[in-house]
Design brief:
Number of strands: 8
Helix content: 40-55%
Number of helices: 8
Shape: elongated
Number of domains: 2
Strand order of the largest sheet: 1-2-3-4
Strand content: 15-25%
Distance between the termini: 18 Å
Radius of gyration: 20 Å
Largest sheet: 4 strands, antiparallel
Order of helices and strands: EEEEHHHHHHHEEEHE
Structural class: alpha+beta
Length: 228
Amino acid sequence: MRLAPDVLLVQAPDGSGRLLDLGGSFYALDPIAVELLWDVARRGRPETVRAAARRYGVPEQRVAADLDELLAVLPSGIGTAEGPPGGGRGDRLAVAALLLLSRVRPARARVWTRLAAARICFATAGWSRTLRWWTALPVSPRTDGRTPAEVDLRVRRTATGSVLGHTCKERAVVGLAEARYAGLGAAVVLGISFYPLATHSWCVLDDGIVLGDLADVCAAFEPVAVHR
């Protein structure tokens, strides 16, 4: 469940929860904390406090204090509006700038430029807005003659050879852009490992082929979000 623009709550098999702040912080939560956060996201704070007080037979003041203490140590914005809707002028300009990168030649320079752009996007705009921009890139009606294996190799070699040390999320969105440029439908997947707690993101074609990453590494993570 999305609790805020860049915050996801995922329930683990044992009933506990994992709060993913996609800006880089992760939290393990007990089942009661998970229950409270889900209720806050669905019904708001006042109703959550009343319902929990009735459920556990405790004063509302105690529930409110415990809830406020929990929210104080978690990322801000939980239980509030999800942020401004997409499609504004800033978003359109960002997508237009990303589209211009398709003109960079040769192909290796284009991939390197896209990797650098991905680094800037995530650093300045966060996960949600960055994914909104990159998934707005269209699938080209004309392929560039590259097979999925060639696109995969191009992205992985360029990322590995870069001195910037690109992260999985940067490789994922660049894999998405390169796949769509080659006329291939693709999406970005966010996955989680519960034990140990870790996240990973990768690009996957519509037929399930992983691009820009190793399929066996991605298989170790449970998908929690798919961005198309």
